[in-house]
Fold:
Amino acid sequence: MQASLAVLGLLSSIAAWLAGATFWWLVAGALLGSVIPFTLFVILPTNKLLLSPTLDRQSVEAKRLLARWAALHAVRSVLSGVALLGHNFDSR
Structure:
């Protein structure tokens, strides 16, 4: 659902920009849309490793992977938050 909402937000920001909104709407939409490839290409490999049945859940490796996932998720959250605030730069 998160990906579909990011796509919807990206498309809505493009529509707003085409309808006359400032360039910041397009920037905000691009930031929001960037969470999709970031998730697929950066976070998903870590998710797969965390979900591996061969991973010992109590191992140092599991703790390292979980810490990595948390940091990557924080980046994704910041991108979404900045996108949310990006439309506030609209000078109208």
Summary: Residues 2-89 form one domain. The two ends are 32 Å apart (CA to CA).
